[in-house]
Model the fold of this input.
Amino acid sequence: MATRGEHQTVPLSVLLKRELANEKIEKPDIVHGQASQSKKGEDFTLLKNECQRAMGDGVTTFSVYGLFDGHNGSAAAIYTKENLLKNVLNAIPSELNRDEWISALPRATVAGFVKTDKDFQEKARTSGTTVTLVIIEGWAITVGSVGDSRCILESAEGDIYYLSADHRLECNEEERDRITACGGEVGRLNAGGGAEIGPLRCWPGGLCLSRSIGDMDVGEYIVPVPHVKQVKLSTAGGRLIISSDGVWDALSAEEALDCCRGMQPEAAAAQIVKEAVQAKGLRDDTTCIVIDILPQEKPPPPPVPAPKKQVKGVLKNMFRRKSPESSSNTDREYVEPDVVEELFEEGSAMLSERLDTKYPLCNMFKLFMCAICQVEMKPEEGISIHAGSTYSGKLRPWDGPFLCLSCQEKKDAMEGKRPSGDRHGSESD
Done:
């Protein structure tokens, strides 16, 4: 949501057609910087520029940034940093073109988060981590998040957008209701004599968050299903700030942006961390990534040549901006707006809702392959993600996508349909 200014949701296909129709639109320049002050050594970052991927209509490049704020040790944060991106990308069929690839990212992000959590928990390690994963392809930004790290965007027009969700139980009533409905308990520490102290926590385990990756010692209603938001910047660009809770406990979004205004990303990240530590002290690992998404630098125009024979048609229009009076109705349809367009947002913890696929991505998940872990299955082994679901739609239990048995058990546990202590076996189900 933007704190200032109006915004609207526009279909992704319209935006991509608009981009293709306007020959002057180019991919942005992306510049990033990071800074950190460590207290526990449990914050980790992922910074990847210019990743390449072959697809149905050629080769595309994209950039990836991740922040992993571990707790109860660093194992979950390290494992997630090393495996999450691979799991997300593996959930996208290779034959998709660029438009379809961007449209598929929200569902692939959900599948990648859940697979990473499932694989890590099988290692029987008890640590956990928050995750904020940002994928930038052209002017499209996709953010998946669990926990209380946060990603904000300031557009070139000065509007602030929150691209992640805060999964602290203290401030998220919907998540408190979900956990209690699944069999968990939410309350504060009991100091004796009826006195309660500290933030709201989930019991058993005492975790302050409702979503994370890892945390196998807590009930499985602490889920890895991410909030996902996808937006498209105007070609004027903008600035992203991804920070752990060490920053957001001390600074508001406006304060973080204002304290580093005019600085390059590396200096801006360091300034944000400095301001946060000065305000609250170094109570926790404090990490910040700043990403500037900028219009490409264009060379100065060449000297104006002597008048020549008039050039007609498309070539003429490539080299000068048409006046509104001379624009046709078709041209006006594709005028690039100077606003941030919201493409997608969903935060439900129900996999039957999050992995539901509609046109044009109805075939994103293959018939005999698990939609989460990508394992191949025999025809009789797949279990529809809608089986036993109360999701009120037109979908039937035999409609896909399908899950393997272990991923179906994971889904049941997250929805409170299986005792949280029975994590790996199905004998008592």
Summary: The CA atoms of residues 322 and 331 lie 9 Å apart. Residues 1-7, 307-336, 420-429 have pLDDT under 50 and may be disordered. The domain at 26-164+223-296+340-346 is CATH 3.60.40.10 (Phosphatase 2c; domain 1). The two ends are 41 Å apart (CA to CA).
